[in-house]
Amino acid sequence: MSKTNKRPEPVDVPQNLLICAEDASIRLCDGEPESPKRFEMVAYTGGTLIVAGWRHPVVVDLTGLVISDRSRPVLKDHRQSEIVGHTDVIRAESGQLEVLGIISGSGAAAREVLESGKNGFPWRASIGALPKRVLFVPKGHVIEANGQTFEGPIYVARESVLQEISFVAIGADDQTSVRVVASGNLKEMSMEFTQWAEGNGFQPETLDESNLGAVRAMYDARANADTPVEPPVDSPVETPVQTPIEATANSAQEVDPAQEIRARAANESRRISAIVKLCDGEHPQIEANAIEAGWDSTRTELELLRASRPSAPAIHAAETAPCGQAIEAALCMASGLGESIVAQSYDERTMDAALSRQLRGAGLHTLVYEVLHAAGEPARPGRVDDETIRAALVANNRLIQASSGFSTLSLSGILSNVANKAMLAAYQAVHSVAPTICASTDVNDFKEVNRYRMTGTGLFEKVGPDGELKHAGLSEESYTNRLDTYGRLITLTRQMIINDDLGAFLQIPRAIGRMSALALEEAVFTLLLSNPGSFFSAGNGNYFDGADSALDIDSLTLAEKKFLDRTDTDGKPILIQPAILLTGTGLKVTAEQLFTETQLNQVPAGNKAKIATNPHAGKFRPAASPYLGLPSLAGSSDNAWYLLADPGDIAFMEIAYLRGRRVPTIESGETDFNVLGIRWRGYFDFGVAMQDDRAAVKSKGEA
User: Fold this and answer.
1) Which of 330, 62, 312 is nearest to 177 (CA)?
2) Which of 219, 339, 503, 687 is least enclosed by beta carbons within 10 angstroms?
3) CA distance 79 to 96
4) Which residues pair with 37 in a beta bridge?
5) pLDDT confidence of 299, banded at 50, 70, 90?
6) What three-state secondary structure class fits 495?
7) Cα–Cα distance measured from residue 354 to residue 365, given in angstroms and rounded to the nearest whole number
8) Crossing angle of the two packed helices 191-199 and 209-226, in degrees rounded to 10
9) pTM value?
10) Per-residue model confidence as pLDDT tens digits over 259-278
11) Closest CA to 43 of 19, 62, 64
């Protein structure tokens, strides 16, 4: 596949990013015992990182890294309670992240960093960042960041926010370094010297004093050699530096060839002697290579120092931990939601992970273990008890706090999302008539609101010879509506967690989903049957009764005529077309026949059936609800039926929702101290109101 520079698209990824430095060690320098220690680090060199929870390597674009002007906390293992110190300088320059700071903590974490560093423990650095915009670069495509070119598949965090810096034991970027020095001695090993030494294959922090002095001497000599020397003001031409042989050759017009050969042989002898002395019989291969390749003593000494460095242990990459979304998708499928339904909410990569062997059949225990692992806490798969539950709840809170209030791998957050999906599936499974016959709108609060419909008065009139247009009037018709809240509490108990009973937990949000749909349905039909303010009445021209009002072709024709004859306040026709035939369940079949059949059996007053042509076939969509005949609701009837306008045109009833939220909500709440578990609340905000009496006609269906 050819490589292209196609622009990658943003993707959904984990919302925490811990950038860990691999080969970072600490060296304590001499200083005053009471002086606070400072640290200096090259925390990130701009390359690819293997980050837990991310499927592919990650590159953090330093041009998009937001660094606060305020100092950042320095922690141990990203735990807010374990303070090591703070930063005073953070620079993102030349494709790498440089940090200077003070170990100002007074607790156990700061003491552990200092004491273990004195004993030679190789602490790593880790930067906690919050990704804001992440691009996925697929295989076969390339992208540029931090002055480097990277080939997919990788993620590039184009925008992120630096949160904190931590000392950790495991890292990912093997080109970085961390040092702790005594107060005031930070200049002993400058950032430039450290970078130069590492570029030549050395880690200054791992060298003893003699070797470190030799490397510094080489750096100083190189630095001095690279410093330009200004010529005297009266010197028009810079005089080149001559070697001894060149000076001899230029000191006389005639050169003795034998003398030149002897001089060159002497120089070569001195070079070889210096190499043999440096190697001292312990590095025969380096000695042979140096003599054969013509190395000088400086190059040989560099190679000897490089060979004397202790080799780093091999790094074995563990299996990438599943991300929060993959666990969430796996739990959704384990709860009974079909794969095709779950796939509508997640991308292909997440679904592949959710269907993998690692997450197949995931349950509550799986989530508990992953939360503990993400927080760096030990977990024993196969056993969940009260102690494990408490540890998981503490770890959950720590993950949320460390990610500024949100974590993709959160016990409460993932279960909230799974519960919401189970609730929504149950809510949508209810055959609800109310949203079909009512208009929907949104309000901003729970105060009573007036809903206005502007109606024109007067018709277009012929324009006179003077060209003057007359004003048409507008009149306001208002209706009121107000929201109410319906809800229940959900608790994930310790018994459910110990029993790994995801199904028992999700029974509650499923019930809330069904109860929410039924609450909306009951509210609509309770109001409809109560006929507030004589909404349906002969005086309004939208009601009729009698023996001829039973549902058939003739009564439906009469209802349609009443509908079409409705007028505005000036007595002019408003030309609203009926569209829906609403009945109880007893008239459901009759309504469907009136909609689908062109020929129907009619039973006139003489009770002799005859075939009649149905002029209403295909006109009025049937809708049936058992609430119309429910004995417990005042005004219910098995025989009454309604002819309604399309609510998208003019609605006879309205459902108002809070700020566009048209389905129930489940969110995490506070748990009582004596409850060992997690609690959520499920609620639904809506209100119903009658609107325009010209958008409906009611038939009593009996005398």
Assistant:
1) 312
2) 339
3) 25
4) 103
5) confident
6) helix
7) 15
8) 100
9) 0.50
10) 766 777 777 888 888 888 88
11) 19
